[in-house]
Amino acid sequence: MSGKYQVCKNCVMDTTDPEIKFDENGRCDYCDNYYNRIQPSWDPKGGEQKLQELVKKIKASGKGKKYDCIIGLSGGVDSSYLTYYSKEKLGLRPLLLSVDTCWNLNVANANTERIVSKLNLDVERITVDWEEMKDLQIAFLKSQVPYQDLTQDHAIFAGLYNSAVKYGIKYVLTGANFSMEGVKPPYEWVYINDIRLIKSIHKKYGTRPLKTFPMAGMLKYRLYYRYIKGMKIVHPLNLIPYKKDDVLKELEEKFGWEKYENKHYENIFTRFYEGYWLPKKFGYDKRKCYYSIMILNGQMTREKALEMLEKPPYDENQALKDMEYIAERFGMSKDEFLQLMNGENKTYRDYKNSAFLLKSAIRFAMFVGMEKRNFR
Questions:
Q1: Could you tell me the CATH superfamily of domain 44-367?
Q2: 3-state class of 17 per DSSP?
Q3: Whole-angstrom Cα distance, residue 279 to residue 311?
Q4: Is 144 helix (H, G, I), strand (E, B) or coil?
Q5: What is the pLDDT of residues 18-65, one digit of tens each?
């Protein structure tokens, strides 16, 4: 980041995104995108008709089959609520998919089991080979890029999309939603699902072949799976009123569901990566995105968000314990891990990537209205 530091006067996004833009009133382009693109087309109170039309299509696609849709269940709040809502309130017959990347906290596993058992749903379980997972994650650490969770994210979503095609399930339901994710972290923070980048980094720093690691690049699942196999990815939570506090209360009352500190903190590696590695090494705090969308849709005040951002993402002592645990699992000493953290920062531009092609596809999706969030 260069130049004068500035924070939006309407949300809490700031110049740690080097491409952020502000108007004459100090309001950022994330806010403009929300007010001009997301809000006009996002009407959860009036989404009932669209939801019922979607449900009708899903049920028709599954007629005569055991399942009419598939849902990836992580034990997090969005996927847990989506599973409950789809089965109990929409009358769907989902197959659940649980992808174990070998980093889940007990709370995530417990939440998953509560949902599965009380709803009496079938679950397909995929456990990523630990030696392959470890090798790829160490390669990413050595690459010095910010997006250390791209490896887990790719395994989870590739597993979901591949399973949908494997079982001939047309509809993939995801918990992604505007209410909690309407402010998309910029490329510099998280990048995108670029299988060429993953393979490039692994080729340079990896030590073993990824024989069983789930793979499905964006072109495969957005083009081949969609237009040849007929797979559709839908986001039902955008069609209902979805507020975090209300959802947490309902999950706790019905399932004894346990909440955790921050979004995505049901996974120990993700907790460390988002709460320590990313802000300490790069100065990026993803809470700014999570809090900003909640400010924009009225779930949080800006004053409260600024107050929370004054505190670290999670306890420093716990972060250091997590670091030692992660280093040990990777077969490193704490000093070796710290040496990686202190290495020269790099980005996707330092490796082979498909950024131009993927960004062009996303810009087209934004142009035709398929994508509403501000990608860059």
A1: HUPs (3.40.50.620)
A2: coil
A3: 12
A4: coil
A5: 899 999 999 999 999 999 989 887 876 678 889 999 999 999 999 999
